[in-house]
């Protein structure tokens, strides 16, 4: 069997990383060819890395992030009330393993969604399943699911994600149906998975925002237990970017 046939069979078996690495090694000058043992080790390692990269790309695509963000791009500054220790502590994603939550609050444009998304990207790279939603859009989705009979199925689908990102908490009023949906969503995930919530509204106002005391107590008891808090300070980073064009 010649080299071309071997590479074709590897690709037919969907061993893309192995096939590409084998082709690259075969194109080296003869005096630089690895030994048989080294060749096998290198193409197996290439296949493992390729599968990891493909898995990460798939996880990021399924997460439905609004944009790309990385932990390295997070602006760490004392005036933002954001320390390097806090960012690095959360970036190792151990909070997901421990089923802990994160709440990020701050003014419009101060980077709440960016930090949440960056941590979501990091979790995808660590092998966790992540899903991103704007809370108003998620509530609308669940409302439609109730109408077509897929509500329980949709809740079960969301429950399977290791990390749920709920962006834009508190930007629109909640009716009874929305309150109950939030409670069921949080209850299903409590103690088993992690949630990141971003909000302009201070946490101290959340009870009044939910409005129904019994439901507010139940929801906040689950959200606020085992939770890391980031309270961002300062003005809009969007304005900073406009005033300091590259």
TrEMBL record:
Residues 98-231 form the AAA+ ATPase domain. The keyword ATP-binding applies. SUPFAM superfamilies: P-loop containing nucleoside triphosphate hydrolases. One of its GO terms (molecular function) is ATP binding. Keywords: ATP-binding, Nucleotide-binding, Plasmid. InterPro entries: AAA+_ATPase, DNAC/IstB-like, IstB, IstB_ATP-bd, P-loop_NTPase. It holds the Pfam family IstB_IS21. Transmembrane segments: none annotated. One of its GO terms (biological process) is DNA replication. Belongs to the IS21/IS1162 putative ATP-binding protein family. This is IstB domain protein ATP-binding protein. It comes from Runella slithyformis (strain ATCC 29530 / DSM 19594 / LMG 11500 / NCIMB 11436 / LSU 4).
